[in-house]
Specification:
single chain, alpha/beta, Rossmann fold, 3 domains, 13 strands, disordered N terminus
Protein backbone atom coordinates (compact mmCIF):
# COMPACT_ATOMS: atom_id res chain seq x y z
CA UNK A 1 0.00 0.00 0.00
CA UNK A 2 1.61 3.33 -1.05
CA UNK A 3 1.67 6.62 0.89
CA UNK A 4 -0.88 8.37 -1.35
CA UNK A 5 -3.34 5.51 -0.72
CA UNK A 6 -2.84 5.84 3.04
CA UNK A 7 -3.53 9.59 2.84
CA UNK A 8 -6.76 8.79 0.99
CA UNK A 9 -7.78 6.32 3.70
CA UNK A 10 -7.26 9.00 6.35
CA UNK A 11 -9.31 11.51 4.35
CA UNK A 12 -12.25 9.09 4.35
CA UNK A 13 -12.41 9.33 8.08
CA UNK A 14 -11.39 12.94 8.36
CA UNK A 15 -15.00 13.97 9.10
CA UNK A 16 -14.60 12.32 12.43
CA UNK A 17 -13.20 14.38 15.25
CA UNK A 18 -10.42 11.88 15.88
CA UNK A 19 -7.40 13.98 16.84
CA UNK A 20 -4.98 11.09 16.32
CA UNK A 21 -6.32 10.38 12.83
CA UNK A 22 -5.80 14.00 11.79
CA UNK A 23 -2.24 13.96 13.10
CA UNK A 24 -1.51 10.78 11.15
CA UNK A 25 -3.06 12.29 8.02
CA UNK A 26 -0.94 15.45 8.30
CA UNK A 27 2.23 13.43 8.86
CA UNK A 28 1.46 11.22 5.87
CA UNK A 29 0.83 14.29 3.70
CA UNK A 30 4.21 15.74 4.69
CA UNK A 31 5.88 12.40 3.99
CA UNK A 32 4.15 12.27 0.60
CA UNK A 33 5.50 15.74 -0.29
CA UNK A 34 9.05 14.75 0.61
CA UNK A 35 8.71 11.48 -1.27
CA UNK A 36 7.62 13.31 -4.43
CA UNK A 37 10.54 15.73 -4.07
CA UNK A 38 12.94 12.80 -3.67
CA UNK A 39 11.50 10.93 -6.65
CA UNK A 40 11.79 14.10 -8.72
CA UNK A 41 15.36 14.93 -7.77
CA UNK A 42 17.10 11.56 -7.64
CA UNK A 43 16.49 10.52 -11.27
CA UNK A 44 17.61 13.97 -12.40
CA UNK A 45 20.84 13.62 -10.45
CA UNK A 46 21.48 10.16 -11.87
CA UNK A 47 20.66 11.36 -15.39
CA UNK A 48 23.13 14.23 -15.10
CA UNK A 49 25.82 11.76 -14.19
CA UNK A 50 26.23 12.71 -10.54
CA UNK A 51 29.29 14.27 -9.05
CA UNK A 52 31.75 11.96 -10.79
CA UNK A 53 30.20 11.45 -14.22
CA UNK A 54 32.98 10.88 -16.75
CA UNK A 55 32.58 10.86 -20.52
CA UNK A 56 35.12 8.03 -20.70
CA UNK A 57 32.18 5.74 -19.89
CA UNK A 58 30.84 6.18 -23.42
CA UNK A 59 34.15 4.96 -24.84
CA UNK A 60 34.26 2.02 -22.41
CA UNK A 61 30.78 0.90 -23.50
CA UNK A 62 31.88 0.82 -27.14
CA UNK A 63 35.02 -1.03 -26.13
CA UNK A 64 33.02 -3.64 -24.21
CA UNK A 65 30.71 -4.42 -27.13
CA UNK A 66 33.28 -4.03 -29.90
CA UNK A 67 33.90 -7.08 -32.12
CA UNK A 68 37.66 -6.43 -32.15
CA UNK A 69 38.05 -5.68 -28.45
CA UNK A 70 41.56 -6.07 -26.99
CA UNK A 71 42.84 -5.60 -23.44
CA UNK A 72 42.58 -1.87 -22.72
CA UNK A 73 45.30 0.34 -21.24
CA UNK A 74 43.87 3.48 -19.63
CA UNK A 75 46.62 6.08 -19.44
CA UNK A 76 46.66 9.36 -17.58
CA UNK A 77 48.38 11.45 -14.94
CA UNK A 78 48.04 10.68 -11.27
CA UNK A 79 44.66 11.55 -9.71
CA UNK A 80 42.69 12.04 -12.94
CA UNK A 81 40.19 9.35 -11.89
CA UNK A 82 41.36 6.25 -13.77
CA UNK A 83 40.61 3.67 -11.06
CA UNK A 84 37.29 5.25 -10.10
CA UNK A 85 36.07 5.39 -13.69
CA UNK A 86 37.01 1.77 -14.35
CA UNK A 87 35.43 0.40 -11.17
CA UNK A 88 32.21 2.37 -11.61
CA UNK A 89 31.99 1.11 -15.19
CA UNK A 90 32.61 -2.45 -14.01
CA UNK A 91 29.96 -2.31 -11.30
CA UNK A 92 27.41 -0.89 -13.71
CA UNK A 93 28.02 -3.09 -16.75
CA UNK A 94 29.44 -6.42 -15.53
CA UNK A 95 28.26 -9.13 -13.18
CA UNK A 96 31.35 -8.63 -11.03
CA UNK A 97 34.79 -7.01 -10.97
CA UNK A 98 38.08 -8.77 -10.22
CA UNK A 99 40.25 -5.90 -8.96
CA UNK A 100 43.99 -6.57 -8.62
CA UNK A 101 46.43 -3.94 -7.34
CA UNK A 102 50.15 -4.52 -7.88
CA UNK A 103 51.11 -1.94 -5.26
CA UNK A 104 49.24 -3.55 -2.38
CA UNK A 105 49.74 -7.21 -3.34
CA UNK A 106 53.34 -8.50 -3.54
CA UNK A 107 51.95 -11.99 -4.17
CA UNK A 108 50.42 -10.71 -7.38
CA UNK A 109 53.79 -9.71 -8.81
CA UNK A 110 55.26 -13.11 -7.91
CA UNK A 111 52.38 -14.80 -9.73
CA UNK A 112 53.30 -13.10 -12.99
CA UNK A 113 56.95 -13.99 -12.48
CA UNK A 114 55.95 -17.68 -12.59
CA UNK A 115 53.94 -17.54 -15.81
CA UNK A 116 52.01 -15.09 -17.97
CA UNK A 117 49.81 -17.63 -19.75
CA UNK A 118 46.09 -16.90 -19.24
CA UNK A 119 45.29 -20.53 -18.42
CA UNK A 120 47.76 -20.39 -15.52
CA UNK A 121 46.80 -16.90 -14.36
CA UNK A 122 42.99 -16.93 -14.32
CA UNK A 123 42.47 -19.40 -11.39
CA UNK A 124 45.09 -17.60 -9.29
CA UNK A 125 43.77 -14.13 -10.12
CA UNK A 126 40.29 -15.30 -9.23
CA UNK A 127 41.53 -16.43 -5.82
CA UNK A 128 43.58 -13.27 -5.16
CA UNK A 129 40.66 -11.00 -6.13
CA UNK A 130 38.19 -13.18 -4.20
CA UNK A 131 35.95 -13.14 -7.27
CA UNK A 132 34.87 -15.87 -9.67
CA UNK A 133 36.17 -14.82 -13.08
CA UNK A 134 33.67 -15.67 -15.81
CA UNK A 135 34.29 -15.13 -19.51
CA UNK A 136 32.47 -12.04 -20.88
CA UNK A 137 30.80 -11.48 -17.48
CA UNK A 138 33.70 -10.37 -15.28
CA UNK A 139 35.79 -7.24 -15.69
CA UNK A 140 39.41 -7.91 -14.76
CA UNK A 141 41.25 -4.78 -13.56
CA UNK A 142 45.03 -4.51 -13.19
CA UNK A 143 45.85 -1.36 -11.21
CA UNK A 144 49.30 0.21 -10.64
CA UNK A 145 50.49 -2.05 -13.44
CA UNK A 146 53.61 0.04 -14.00
CA UNK A 147 55.09 -1.91 -11.09
CA UNK A 148 54.95 -5.22 -12.98
CA UNK A 149 56.44 -5.41 -16.45
CA UNK A 150 55.32 -8.99 -17.00
CA UNK A 151 51.70 -8.07 -16.32
CA UNK A 152 51.86 -5.67 -19.27
CA UNK A 153 53.49 -8.36 -21.40
CA UNK A 154 50.75 -10.83 -20.44
CA UNK A 155 48.20 -8.70 -22.24
CA UNK A 156 49.59 -9.99 -25.54
CA UNK A 157 48.67 -13.55 -24.57
CA UNK A 158 45.24 -12.57 -23.29
CA UNK A 159 44.64 -10.92 -26.66
CA UNK A 160 45.86 -13.90 -28.67
CA UNK A 161 44.80 -16.89 -26.55
CA UNK A 162 41.98 -15.68 -24.33
CA UNK A 163 40.17 -12.73 -25.95
CA UNK A 164 36.94 -13.68 -24.20
CA UNK A 165 38.29 -12.19 -20.96
CA UNK A 166 37.66 -8.46 -20.54
CA UNK A 167 40.70 -6.69 -19.09
CA UNK A 168 41.35 -3.01 -18.34
CA UNK A 169 44.76 -1.92 -17.12
CA UNK A 170 45.58 1.33 -15.30
CA UNK A 171 48.58 2.84 -13.60
CA UNK A 172 50.43 6.04 -12.94
CA UNK A 173 53.24 7.04 -15.31
CA UNK A 174 52.38 4.26 -17.75
CA UNK A 175 53.48 6.54 -20.57
CA UNK A 176 56.92 6.69 -18.99
CA UNK A 177 57.04 2.97 -18.19
CA UNK A 178 56.15 1.68 -21.64
CA UNK A 179 58.83 3.83 -23.23
CA UNK A 180 61.61 2.19 -21.22
CA UNK A 181 63.75 -0.10 -23.29
CA UNK A 182 63.44 -3.07 -20.93
CA UNK A 183 59.67 -3.21 -21.24
CA UNK A 184 58.28 -5.79 -23.66
CA UNK A 185 55.24 -3.79 -24.66
CA UNK A 186 52.45 -5.72 -26.41
CA UNK A 187 52.41 -3.58 -29.56
CA UNK A 188 49.25 -4.14 -31.61
CA UNK A 189 47.75 -6.39 -28.95
CA UNK A 190 46.12 -3.73 -26.77
CA UNK A 191 43.79 -0.76 -27.06
CA UNK A 192 45.11 2.45 -25.49
CA UNK A 193 42.96 5.33 -24.30
CA UNK A 194 44.12 8.45 -22.43
CA UNK A 195 42.06 9.87 -19.57
CA UNK A 196 42.34 13.55 -18.76
CA UNK A 197 41.03 15.70 -15.88
CA UNK A 198 37.32 16.55 -15.96
CA UNK A 199 36.58 19.06 -18.71
CA UNK A 200 34.21 22.01 -18.45
CA UNK A 201 31.21 19.92 -19.50
CA UNK A 202 31.87 17.29 -16.83
CA UNK A 203 32.36 20.06 -14.28
CA UNK A 204 29.00 21.63 -15.16
CA UNK A 205 27.26 18.26 -14.95
CA UNK A 206 28.86 17.64 -11.56
CA UNK A 207 27.40 20.99 -10.48
CA UNK A 208 23.95 19.75 -11.50
CA UNK A 209 23.75 22.00 -14.58
CA UNK A 210 22.54 19.52 -17.20
CA UNK A 211 20.04 22.01 -18.67
CA UNK A 212 22.74 24.64 -18.98
CA UNK A 213 24.99 22.17 -20.82
CA UNK A 214 22.17 21.37 -23.26
CA UNK A 215 21.57 25.09 -23.85
CA UNK A 216 25.28 25.68 -24.50
CA UNK A 217 25.41 22.84 -27.02
CA UNK A 218 22.32 24.09 -28.81
CA UNK A 219 23.71 27.63 -29.10
CA UNK A 220 27.04 26.27 -30.30
CA UNK A 221 25.36 24.25 -33.05
CA UNK A 222 23.06 27.05 -34.18
CA UNK A 223 25.45 30.01 -33.62
CA UNK A 224 22.72 31.74 -31.63
CA UNK A 225 23.49 33.84 -28.52
CA UNK A 226 22.78 32.47 -25.06
CA UNK A 227 20.20 34.40 -23.04
CA UNK A 228 22.15 37.05 -21.10
CA UNK A 229 21.40 35.59 -17.65
CA UNK A 230 22.54 32.11 -18.73
CA UNK A 231 25.61 33.53 -20.45
CA UNK A 232 26.67 35.32 -17.28
CA UNK A 233 25.96 32.23 -15.16
CA UNK A 234 28.08 30.06 -17.47
CA UNK A 235 30.94 32.60 -17.36
CA UNK A 236 30.77 32.46 -13.57
CA UNK A 237 31.09 28.66 -13.68
CA UNK A 238 34.00 29.04 -16.10
CA UNK A 239 35.90 31.27 -13.68
CA UNK A 240 35.17 28.82 -10.89
CA UNK A 241 36.54 26.03 -13.04
CA UNK A 242 39.77 27.98 -13.59
CA UNK A 243 40.30 27.91 -9.83
CA UNK A 244 39.09 24.38 -9.04
CA UNK A 245 40.24 22.64 -12.22
CA UNK A 246 39.19 19.18 -13.28
CA UNK A 247 40.92 16.83 -10.86
CA UNK A 248 38.00 14.75 -9.52
CA UNK A 249 39.06 14.98 -5.88
CA UNK A 250 39.30 18.77 -6.13
CA UNK A 251 35.89 19.01 -7.82
CA UNK A 252 34.44 16.77 -5.14
CA UNK A 253 35.91 18.89 -2.32
CA UNK A 254 34.59 22.07 -3.93
CA UNK A 255 31.05 20.74 -4.39
CA UNK A 256 30.94 19.38 -0.84
CA UNK A 257 32.35 22.41 0.96
CA UNK A 258 32.71 25.41 -1.43
CA UNK A 259 35.96 25.90 0.52
CA UNK A 260 38.76 27.14 -1.75
CA UNK A 261 41.33 26.67 1.00
CA UNK A 262 40.52 22.96 1.17
CA UNK A 263 40.56 22.72 -2.64
CA UNK A 264 43.96 24.42 -2.76
CA UNK A 265 45.30 22.03 -0.12
CA UNK A 266 44.14 19.08 -2.22
CA UNK A 267 45.79 20.58 -5.30
CA UNK A 268 49.04 21.09 -3.41
CA UNK A 269 49.01 17.45 -2.33
CA UNK A 270 48.65 16.37 -5.96
CA UNK A 271 51.52 18.67 -6.97
CA UNK A 272 53.63 17.17 -4.19
CA UNK A 273 52.89 13.67 -5.48
CA UNK A 274 54.04 14.75 -8.94
CA UNK A 275 57.34 15.96 -7.50
CA UNK A 276 57.69 12.66 -5.68
CA UNK A 277 57.10 10.77 -8.94
CA UNK A 278 59.82 12.81 -10.63
CA UNK A 279 62.25 11.41 -8.07
CA UNK A 280 60.86 7.87 -7.89
CA UNK A 281 60.33 7.06 -11.56
CA UNK A 282 63.06 9.11 -13.21
CA UNK A 283 66.69 8.75 -14.12
CA UNK A 284 68.85 10.11 -11.29
CA UNK A 285 70.60 12.55 -13.60
CA UNK A 286 67.26 13.92 -14.86
CA UNK A 287 65.46 14.56 -11.56
CA UNK A 288 66.77 18.09 -11.02
CA UNK A 289 66.29 19.02 -14.68
CA UNK A 290 62.72 17.74 -14.70
CA UNK A 291 61.84 19.78 -11.64
CA UNK A 292 63.48 22.87 -13.10
CA UNK A 293 61.40 22.57 -16.27
CA UNK A 294 58.18 21.93 -14.38
CA UNK A 295 58.73 24.87 -12.03
CA UNK A 296 59.52 27.11 -14.99
CA UNK A 297 56.29 26.50 -16.93
CA UNK A 298 54.39 29.19 -15.05
CA UNK A 299 57.18 31.64 -15.92
CA UNK A 300 56.86 30.77 -19.60
CA UNK A 301 53.08 31.25 -19.54
CA UNK A 302 53.39 34.66 -17.89
CA UNK A 303 55.15 36.11 -20.92
CA UNK A 304 53.44 37.70 -23.89
CA UNK A 305 55.13 35.16 -26.15
CA UNK A 306 54.28 31.80 -24.59
CA UNK A 307 56.62 29.83 -26.86
CA UNK A 308 58.88 27.67 -24.69
CA UNK A 309 62.33 29.20 -24.27
CA UNK A 310 65.18 27.19 -22.73
CA UNK A 311 67.02 30.35 -21.70
CA UNK A 312 64.24 31.11 -19.21
CA UNK A 313 65.02 27.90 -17.29
CA UNK A 314 68.52 29.05 -16.47
CA UNK A 315 71.26 31.10 -18.04
CA UNK A 316 72.90 29.29 -20.94
CA UNK A 317 70.37 26.43 -21.02
CA UNK A 318 70.20 24.40 -24.24
CA UNK A 319 67.73 21.93 -25.75
CA UNK A 320 70.17 19.00 -25.45
CA UNK A 321 70.28 19.51 -21.69
CA UNK A 322 66.53 19.63 -21.01
CA UNK A 323 64.76 17.80 -23.85
CA UNK A 324 64.67 14.50 -21.91
CA UNK A 325 63.11 16.27 -18.94
CA UNK A 326 60.37 17.75 -21.12
CA UNK A 327 59.75 14.36 -22.73
CA UNK A 328 59.37 12.73 -19.29
CA UNK A 329 56.81 15.34 -18.23
CA UNK A 330 54.83 14.82 -21.45
CA UNK A 331 54.88 11.02 -21.17
CA UNK A 332 53.75 11.21 -17.55
CA UNK A 333 50.68 13.21 -18.56
CA UNK A 334 51.64 16.08 -16.24
CA UNK A 335 52.08 18.51 -19.15
CA UNK A 336 51.21 18.66 -22.84
CA UNK A 337 53.31 20.08 -25.65
CA UNK A 338 52.08 21.64 -28.88
CA UNK A 339 54.34 22.29 -31.87
CA UNK A 340 54.38 25.08 -34.42
CA UNK A 341 52.91 24.10 -37.78
CA UNK A 342 55.42 25.21 -40.43
CA UNK A 343 52.92 24.71 -43.25
CA UNK A 344 49.14 24.66 -43.12
CA UNK A 345 48.68 21.42 -45.04
CA UNK A 346 47.26 17.99 -44.30
CA UNK A 347 48.40 16.14 -42.35
CA UNK A 348 49.60 18.81 -39.95
CA UNK A 349 51.83 16.26 -38.19
CA UNK A 350 54.08 16.18 -41.26
CA UNK A 351 54.83 19.89 -40.91
CA UNK A 352 55.49 20.31 -37.21
CA UNK A 353 58.56 22.25 -36.19
CA UNK A 354 60.17 20.16 -33.44
CA UNK A 355 62.31 23.11 -32.29
CA UNK A 356 59.36 25.47 -31.69
CA UNK A 357 56.73 24.46 -29.17
CA UNK A 358 54.68 25.51 -26.16
CA UNK A 359 54.18 23.58 -22.92
CA UNK A 360 50.96 23.63 -20.89
CA UNK A 361 50.07 22.08 -17.54
CA UNK A 362 47.51 19.27 -17.87
CA UNK A 363 45.03 20.80 -15.40
CA UNK A 364 44.18 24.49 -15.11
CA UNK A 365 43.43 24.25 -11.38
CA UNK A 366 46.88 22.80 -10.71
CA UNK A 367 48.40 25.61 -12.78
CA UNK A 368 46.69 28.22 -10.58
CA UNK A 369 47.81 26.35 -7.45
CA UNK A 370 51.38 26.09 -8.71
CA UNK A 371 51.40 29.81 -9.51
CA UNK A 372 49.84 30.46 -6.06
CA UNK A 373 47.02 32.42 -7.66
CA UNK A 374 44.56 33.81 -5.11
CA UNK A 375 41.12 32.37 -6.08
CA UNK A 376 39.40 35.73 -5.61
CA UNK A 377 41.70 37.30 -8.20
CA UNK A 378 40.34 34.88 -10.81
CA UNK A 379 36.73 34.96 -9.64
CA UNK A 380 36.57 38.75 -9.59
CA UNK A 381 38.82 39.47 -12.59
CA UNK A 382 41.59 41.27 -10.71
CA UNK A 383 43.91 43.42 -12.80
CA UNK A 384 46.80 41.90 -10.84
CA UNK A 385 46.57 38.90 -13.18
CA UNK A 386 46.86 40.85 -16.42
CA UNK A 387 50.35 39.53 -17.24
CA UNK A 388 49.37 35.93 -16.54
CA UNK A 389 45.79 35.96 -17.79
CA UNK A 390 46.61 35.29 -21.45
CA UNK A 391 48.78 32.24 -20.74
CA UNK A 392 46.28 30.92 -18.19
CA UNK A 393 43.40 31.07 -20.67
CA UNK A 394 45.53 29.50 -23.42
CA UNK A 395 46.29 26.66 -20.98
CA UNK A 396 42.57 26.20 -20.27
CA UNK A 397 41.70 26.05 -23.98
CA UNK A 398 44.52 23.59 -24.65
CA UNK A 399 43.19 21.33 -21.88
CA UNK A 400 39.66 21.37 -23.32
CA UNK A 401 40.83 20.63 -26.87
CA UNK A 402 43.12 17.85 -25.66
CA UNK A 403 40.22 16.27 -23.74
CA UNK A 404 38.36 16.08 -27.06
CA UNK A 405 41.32 14.16 -28.55
CA UNK A 406 42.57 16.96 -30.78
CA UNK A 407 46.25 17.16 -31.63
CA UNK A 408 46.96 20.84 -31.19
CA UNK A 409 49.40 23.04 -33.10
CA UNK A 410 50.00 26.77 -33.30
CA UNK A 411 50.90 28.98 -36.27
CA UNK A 412 53.41 31.79 -36.59
CA UNK A 413 54.19 33.87 -39.67
CA UNK A 414 57.64 35.01 -40.73
CA UNK A 415 56.80 38.47 -39.41
CA UNK A 416 55.62 37.31 -36.00
CA UNK A 417 51.84 37.07 -36.44
CA UNK A 418 50.61 34.16 -34.32
CA UNK A 419 47.43 32.09 -34.05
CA UNK A 420 47.08 30.30 -30.72
CA UNK A 421 45.80 26.92 -31.95
CA UNK A 422 45.37 25.10 -35.23
CA UNK A 423 43.41 21.83 -35.32
CA UNK A 424 41.96 19.40 -37.85
CA UNK A 425 38.19 19.25 -37.34
CA UNK A 426 35.79 17.32 -39.57
CA UNK A 427 38.49 17.06 -42.23
CA UNK A 428 39.18 20.81 -42.20
CA UNK A 429 42.15 22.74 -40.83
CA UNK A 430 40.69 25.31 -38.44
CA UNK A 431 42.57 28.23 -36.80
CA UNK A 432 41.57 29.20 -33.25
CA UNK A 433 42.25 32.60 -31.71
CA UNK A 434 41.94 32.91 -27.91
CA UNK A 435 41.25 36.08 -25.93
CA UNK A 436 40.93 36.24 -22.15
CA UNK A 437 38.21 38.94 -22.23
CA UNK A 438 35.75 40.42 -24.75
CA UNK A 439 38.37 42.25 -26.83
CA UNK A 440 38.28 40.03 -29.91
CA UNK A 441 40.30 42.13 -32.34
CA UNK A 442 42.67 39.62 -33.87
CA UNK A 443 45.08 40.96 -36.47
CA UNK A 444 47.03 37.71 -36.54
CA UNK A 445 43.91 35.71 -37.31
CA UNK A 446 43.11 38.02 -40.22
CA UNK A 447 46.62 37.56 -41.59
CA UNK A 448 46.23 33.78 -41.30
CA UNK A 449 42.85 33.83 -43.06
CA UNK A 450 44.15 36.03 -45.87
CA UNK A 451 47.09 33.66 -46.40
CA UNK A 452 45.44 30.25 -45.99
CA UNK A 453 41.74 30.83 -46.79
CA UNK A 454 40.21 28.47 -44.18
CA UNK A 455 36.55 27.57 -44.56
CA UNK A 456 36.00 29.32 -41.24
CA UNK A 457 37.91 30.33 -38.11
CA UNK A 458 37.08 30.15 -34.40
CA UNK A 459 37.36 33.08 -31.99
CA UNK A 460 37.20 32.22 -28.28
CA UNK A 461 36.55 34.96 -25.71
CA UNK A 462 33.99 36.05 -23.12
CA UNK A 463 31.67 37.19 -25.93
CA UNK A 464 28.43 35.35 -26.65
CA UNK A 465 27.94 32.89 -29.51
CA UNK A 466 27.78 34.19 -33.06
CA UNK A 467 29.00 33.77 -36.64
CA UNK A 468 30.18 36.64 -38.80
CA UNK A 469 32.73 37.12 -41.60
CA UNK A 470 33.57 33.39 -41.60
CA UNK A 471 34.42 33.55 -37.89
CA UNK A 472 32.59 31.41 -35.37
CA UNK A 473 32.53 33.13 -31.97
CA UNK A 474 32.51 30.80 -28.97
CA UNK A 475 32.42 31.80 -25.27
CA UNK A 476 35.23 30.43 -23.14
CA UNK A 477 32.85 28.18 -21.21
CA UNK A 478 31.85 26.36 -24.43
CA UNK A 479 35.25 25.21 -25.70
CA UNK A 480 34.26 21.63 -24.80
CA UNK A 481 31.77 21.76 -27.71
CA UNK A 482 34.50 22.06 -30.37
Amino acid sequence: MNIAHLVGKCNLVSNSSSYSCNIVRYLLEILLIFTRIYVTLVPAQKESGGIMYRKITEYLLKWKSGPYRKPLILQGARQVGKTYSILEFGREHYDNVAYLNFETSPTLIKTFEESIEPAFLIPILSRLANQTIIKEKTLIVFDEVQLCERALTSLKYFCENAPEYHIIVAGNLLGVAVNREQFSFPVGKVDIKPLYPMDMEEFLLACGEKDLVLQIKQCFTNDTPMPTALHEAALSYYRQYLVVGGMPDCVNKYLETKDHILVRHTQNMILASYLNDMSKYNNTNEIKKTRLVYDNITVQLSRKNTKFQYKLIKKGARAAEFENAIEWLCLSGIVSRIYRAQNIKKPLANYRDIDSFKVYVSDIGLLCAKKEIVPEDVLYLSSDLNDFKGGMVENYVCNQLTSNDYTNYYWESDRGAEVDFVIQRDGRIIPIEVKSADNTKAKSLKIYMDMHKPEYAIKISTKNFGFEDSKKTIPLYAVFCI
